[in-house]
Amino acid sequence: MPTKLIMLQRYAEQQASRRPVMIAIAGDSAAGKTTLTAGIATALGPDRVTAVCVDDYHRYDREERKTLPFTALHPDCNYVQIMEQHLQLLATGQPVLKPVYDHDTGRLTRPELVEPREFVLVEGLLPLHTKLTRACFDITIYLDPPEEIRRGWKVKRDTEKRGYTADQVLAELARREPESAAHIRPQREFADLVLRFAPIPTRQDPPGTPLSAELLLRPTIRHPDLSAVLDDSERRAIHLRMRRDVDGRPVDALHIHGYAPAEESRLVRKAIWSRLGVEAGDPPELLGDLGNGQRSEPLAITQLLLLYHMLGAAR
Amino acid sequence: MPTKLIMLQRYAEQQASRRPVMIAIAGDSAAGKTTLTAGIATALGPDRVTAVCVDDYHRYDREERKTLPFTALHPDCNYVQIMEQHLQLLATGQPVLKPVYDHDTGRLTRPELVEPREFVLVEGLLPLHTKLTRACFDITIYLDPPEEIRRGWKVKRDTEKRGYTADQVLAELARREPESAAHIRPQREFADLVLRFAPIPTRQDPPGTPLSAELLLRPTIRHPDLSAVLDDSERRAIHLRMRRDVDGRPVDALHIHGYAPAEESRLVRKAIWSRLGVEAGDPPELLGDLGNGQRSEPLAITQLLLLYHMLGAAR
Q1: Under an 8 A CB cutoff, do B110 and A113 touch?
Q2: With contact defined as beta carbons under 8 Å apart, do B245 and B216 qualify?
């Protein structure tokens, strides 16, 4: 019906004019997605950011999953096609009525209206699972902590915040492992940035030393020219090195050392902020918050680089 | 991002190829929407029909509405923009995750996946409320019973099936009247067919006589040439008359008389079915079911004409 098509087109055009910047943060359960995004959202301000967790697109609730042959990580356990549809709608500036999965009760409940603001932060287990979802993002990030570290984080969180015993969490991790390997970890190759927070194996740093960060900067988006930033005086806190990724592709690996004196890292952070000319004034505070009262300079610098990309994509 | 646009376009094209026939049945509460659609859905078969009630797009549940200055009939009480979006998606052959309003509990609950089949029957209070929703339909119908008859139907249903007292229902009807006038009844003018089931004022038919039907056939869609059907022998059961609508527009008014002998009406029904050449064989049975064990030939013939339009639009 021509009328219909005309209306649909007008609608699309009208909406296209206010396209938000779409950022995906993919990673396995307890890989640090929330910690990473919280600081960014705070730095930009809630009125500029819409946060979406795609784990809300579960097709079955916790009770129903008990009778099913797969875990919540499996694409068949999620409304992948609806996730694709909603990401497309958000990417073109349209609101969606997003399903809601209650992590406390394990129940699917009343959906909520989500309106895309200037930046849409999409985190979850499968945001990069399909070609169509990936096409919806301006910047894609994969969180890739060493498995033993992630296990520690998950046990800590699920026992402290979700009322499980350590044994229950470890059993669930074992049950999920094949699906993590099959569906979650393959998303790593599609990320513009791969982030790994871990201690440096070759060093014996005292306990309490913040984890170091390794950022793989893939050439799929334009990264800042850090050569201008990383002069000798800063080599101790941060350095850039080209290497081959596990798949053989050449990547830039940015290393941010958790053992470097905080003061030095702060200088680096200010230098990056000012010399990259992202915005005038000092870098936003509240970056690097680990959520447990502690701060991490490597996390702060990582979040700063993400802010650089997001603000750049918005221009 | 070009990638994104290409993906979005491919997706739209891929989906456009399986566009369902979209039918809207609008009308006030207890105007007879369900009775009308039930017969059609049964006749076509569940595997060919997707039924959607747009009253599920309520923004607030029953509890929340108590503190609000409007009733469920008010557009501000509904996610109209999401309703527009979902109707567009269904009209282009895409599934939606539809919100669900539980009429028994008055609660908004877990949404459900709706995949458009060959025919999508959309009924509810506001399906024709906006230009964009109207643009999504191939056939639009408005149910327009006399108010006193609708009140009787609503009292009967809400006391028998929804646990209200008659006084509660009448009080609610009074409370809703201004919003019915402002938001529901204005949809009448946008319908291709306006259906009114009522006794004929000029006659004293015995109680139990089925209500007669008046169908306004607006020239906004192509109606069957009934002149071929309505020869003299059938005038008693059904006749067509041109008149001016309340807004002065000329319309064809098809009158189907409830007092006509059932046998005669059955002949008319067969005649319409065969001479219109909708489908081979006899007209589908199960038409005209009033849901209370009784049948109505005027309803059956009305449903038959709707089937004619739906099957025609599908070609």
Answers
A1: no
A2: yes
